[in-house]
Automatic annotation (TrEMBL):
GO terms for cellular component: endoplasmic reticulum membrane. Keywords: Endoplasmic reticulum, GTP-binding, Membrane, Nucleotide-binding, Receptor, Transmembrane, Transmembrane helix. Belongs to the SRP receptor beta subunit family. It comes from Thielaviopsis punctulata. This is Signal recognition particle receptor subunit beta.
Length: 322
């Protein structure tokens, strides 16, 4: 026996659905008319929405970004070492044929990819497939009177802020002119500048008052202009700098001892200006002594212009520190 629905029941259901639809339609019409009619309530609601949307979007973006401030690699070194030409090459894939003394710091954003090919070849730096991290390379002036700008860029290296574990500086590239470093008038000021940078890092590492040391900041000494005939090999650049840094260290220590101050004060000042492991008075200075303060120093040769080893090893060193 087939069962059929009562026509009256079906008609009531249809009528009920139509009434519901008409009610929703009327409600939507009333809501639309209300939103189009100026009122204090509407103004308050619109203001709240306008104020909340940027806050919510900012929260989402900050949560999705691993760094509030991008990590950075700082380019430091004396004038005419090739810092600006190096940054120009990385940015445009062509080296600047002529540069001038930088007066202000310049920051350029790059991408560090997880792919080995992109990490080993700067020409593939724009490969953003897979995991990647954005970072900055900051070029600083090399003129002695403008080096305070470099200090501003490395404010997180200040020993008073050494406990800041969120330091955005992930590495320092100290560029030198490998073709002119054999000349005393080039070697001496270059080593003096390097001494100050290493002392800044050393004081930063030694100033931590907690069991948690500040994050390590490695240093790459980029020996540029290896394409020139007069260029010293990277090993000789390292040896020359170590010898000159040792001479500066001994000279500063002797200067403090000759001041005639009380012995306790002299010892304190000497420790504060002694580069490397303190107590190694009879030892020749080497970059290995900086490991006592968790400062890794590496010397790599390369060239920005001309034929030679190029800049890929420098690029690889930088992206592997991000």
């Amino acid at each position: 026996m087939e069962s059929t629905m009562d026509p009256i029941v079906v008609q009531d259901s249809v009528q009920h659905a139509q009434n519901g639809f008409l009610a929703l339609k009327e409600m939507a019409r009333s809501l639309l008319m209300w939103t189009l009619t100026p009122s204090h309530e509407l103004l308050i609601i619109a203001s709240v929405i306008i104020l909340l949307i940027p806050v919510v979007l900012h929260y989402i973006v900050v949560k999705a970004t691993p760094y509030t401030n991008l990590p950075s690699i700082v380019l430091i070194g004396p004038c005419n070492a090739g810092k600006t030409a190096f940054l120009t090459l990385l940015e445009n894939n062509t080296a600047a044929t002529e540069t001038h003394t930088s007066l202000v710091s310049t920051s350029v954003e790059f991408t560090a990819s997880s792919k080995s090919a992109a990490r080993e070849n700067h020409l593939k730096k724009n490969d953003v497939t897979g995991e990647h991290t954005k970072f900055l390379i900051v070029d600083t002036p090399g003129h002695p009177k403008l080096r305070a700008v470099a200090g501003d860029q490395m404010i997180s290296l200040n020993p008073k802020k050494a406990a800041d574990a969120d330091s955005t500086v992930k590495g320092i590239v100290f560029m030198v002119d490998g073709a002119a470093l054999g000349e005393p008038d080039v070697l001496s000021p270059t080593a003096e500048y390097l001494y100050e940078i290493l002392m800044l890092l050393q004081r930063r590492a030694a100033s931590s008052k907690s069991s948690r040391p500040p994050p390590a900041i490695p240093v790459l000494i980029a020996a540029n202009k290896m394409d020139l005939f007069t260029a010293l090999p990277a090993a000789m650049v390292k040896a020359q700098l170590e010898t000159e840094l040792g001479r500066i260290r001994a000279s500063r220590s002797k200067g403090l001892m000759d001041t005639g101050a009380d012995n306790v004060g002299v010892v304190g000042e000497e420790q504060d200006s002694w580069l490397g492991a303190y107590g190694s008075n009879n030892e020749k200075f080497t970059f290995k002594q900086m490991l006592e303060f968790d400062i890794e120093v590496e010397v790599i040769g390369g060239n920005v212009i001309g034929d030679g080893p190029g800049v890929n090893k420098w690029w690889s060193w930088m992206v592997n520190r991000i």
